[in-house]
Amino acid sequence: MPVEILGTVYERFLGKVIRLTAGHQAKIEEKPEVRKAGGVYYTPSYIVDYIVNNTVGKKIEERSPQQLAGGKDTPPFRVLDMACGSGSFLLGAYRCLLDHCLKWYTENKPDSHKKAVWKDLRRGGWRLTIEEKKRILTTHIFGVDIDPQAVEVSKLSLLLRVLEGETDQSFGRQMQLFEDRALPNLSDNLKCGNSLIGPDYFAARLDIDPEELKHINPFDWKQAFPEAMQSGGFDCVIGNPPYVRQESLGLPFKEYAQKTFASYAGTADLYAYFIEKAHLLLLESGAFGMICSNKFMRANYGKPLRSFLASRTTLDQIVDFGELPVFEKAATFPAIIITRNNKPKKQRFVYAPIKRLDFQSLEKEVKNVGMALDERSLSGDNWTLANVQEIAVFEKMKKRGTPLGQYVGGNIYRGVLTGLNEAFVIDRVTRDRLIREDKKSAEIIRPFVIGDDIRKYRVNFNKRYLIFARHGISIQNYPAIERYLSAFRDRLLPKPKDWSGTKWIGRKPGPYKWYEIQDTIDYYREFEKPKIIYPEIAKESRFAFDEEGRYSNNKAFFIPVDDKYLLGILNSRLTWAFLKRLCSVLGDPDRKGRLELRTIYLEKLPIRVADFNTPIDKARHDRMVKLVESMLTIRKQLADADSVAQTGLIQRRVDSTDAEIDNLVYELYGLTKEEIKIVEEGTKR
């Protein structure tokens, strides 16, 4: 039975429950934990195979079945999946072990291993006996899942694999030969429990609610797997930890995690703790391989986990899929992380940013796009996953620049979160009507742009407007707007979360009245100043200049400065190369990754400060300002062009001016021709 069929069983069976209503109707619904995670996502077989081959496969190379089985003084080889689900990773590991053992027996006098292999005269070739398949399964394969149904499906999956390829004739003959039960008991191998929470969760509590105990289901690793834990742990831990966002983790769990895990962060998603716990369950030099979110590599919450991995494990591979749809209909930003559980002397690992899914082999794709990196990529607050030459360029930029946050005095602001755009964001016709009904309406209506309106050096104003009913406003002074907003009153009132506990039915409760926007924008006057504005997510430089007092939505940020020198640096090729290695990257099938231009990243960008007492610095500054002013004019002309010929002519001027700005920025940071080449090749990737 193909793994994909069993994966479908998981999606259809494990992810749902049948609920009986008061009217005696049966309703099929997603389990609460599945809703919170956003669904059940079955791991594609090519991911399973890659992780298994690079962990289990490498650990068992050159070892005989007898060596893997262990002996008096050596424990057997053991593989663990801490959140096994339907068992896809355990099936992959089991298949790897079966293939390895059969190959070894076939190449090493198979006639002398009659209990392990038999010759299939009908089909030709040697095959493992059922007894040997059972022995391999019960000796080497172990799993845990919090869902008892998942444990049962995993058992079924593995037992079906024991029977795979058998016929009535071969099965009956072997049962007569060994006089044993047809299938093994897997109760010692697959267990139900919470992999992250131990019995100490309820320490010092006398009033344990039975329902809470059942829900938490604490797991005692030493009691569940005594032989493995006494021998130091497992040889391999593999899998796909559940995708549960931190918003769904209750306060009791977070308090427990804070006391238990070195990787704890208040905003960390659940997978972070699975990664740490996996390493704690590994033997020294054991192999770890999981597919999880890539966000920990750059996000603030990932700093403790990054520190844990960089200082206590040896990284082997990071295979980063970015935003590619590895899991159908799920934006999980996955990456494969493969490590060895020993303290590193020196880090040497492969980083492979995967840009497509139509490859013939993931192994070959990793070899084609992978870069060899070292510990320099893991230093500092963020991992800089770039080659040695690029890192040297970025270090040079840091030495010659001042962090943007310091350069602008910390004044980087987010746009407005209204709480209900449908009510507060209006078009030109509605704006004009409200002002006709009451001229005072104009006092609180502002021109409004969204992240997608913001382009390089230009804001495309699409005649959107914002009813800026900020906190503390007297709505009675604006009767036309009050009447208009009244139509949305029910949806503007704060309401509790829905029955799943994950989404608000109405707006979140807050210190605002029904007619006020959700945000308390104390810095609203800054919108009206000349400013540099940019979107939260972009796949190319999109810093624009606005002096029209436009407000923006919460998917855009702005810096209230009239600084065209800074604008030129921000829009340069060198800056984009730096941001690509600094910001979270959302991969894109068209090979141009989108960046999350969040303040925590932007404020670290090194800006070359001009020294006006130095003639060459002043000349460069003034030249940059002139080039940017020219660019702002040309970009406006390009938007107004009314023919193909005119558009082509102006675009050539844009490209030429862009190149001049790029060259000036290279000059500002003192880059050599070789360093410029490194930057420009890096921006193509």
Describe the protein's topology.
Layout: H1 3-14, E1 16-20, E2 26-30, H2 32-37, H3 45-54, H4 56-59, H5 65-69, E3 79-81, H6 88-107, E4 117-119, E5 126-128, H7 130-140, E6 141-145, H8 148-163, H9 168-178, E7 190-192, H10 210-216, H11 221-224, H12 226-230, E8 234-239, H13 251-260, H14 271-280, E9 282-293, H15 303-312, E10 314-320, E11 334-340, E12 348-353, H16 362-369, E13 371-374, H17 388-400, E14 402-403, H18 404-407, E15 413-414, H19 421-424, E16 425-427, H20 428-437, E17 445-449, E18 454-455, E19 458-459, E20 464-467, H21 479-486, H22 489-492, E21 531-535, E22 537-538, E23 544-546, E24 551-552, E25 556-559, H23 564-570, H24 573-582, E26 585-586, E27 594-596, H25 599-602, E28 606-607, H26 615-640, H27 644-668, H28 673-684
Parallel strand pairs: 3-6, 3-8, 6-7, 8-9, 10-12, 17-24
Antiparallel strand pairs: 1-2, 4-5, 9-11, 10-11, 12-13, 14-28, 15-25, 16-20, 17-20, 18-19, 21-23, 21-25, 22-27, 26-27
What oligomeric arrangement do these chains adopt? single chain
Q: Radius of gyration over alpha carbons?
A: 30 Å
User: What share of residues is helical?
Assistant: 40-55%
Q: Give the C-level CATH assignment of the largest domain.
A: Alpha Beta
Biggest sheet layout: 9 strands, mixed
Question: What is the CATH superfamily of the largest domain?
Answer: Vaccinia Virus protein VP39
β content, as a range?
15-25%
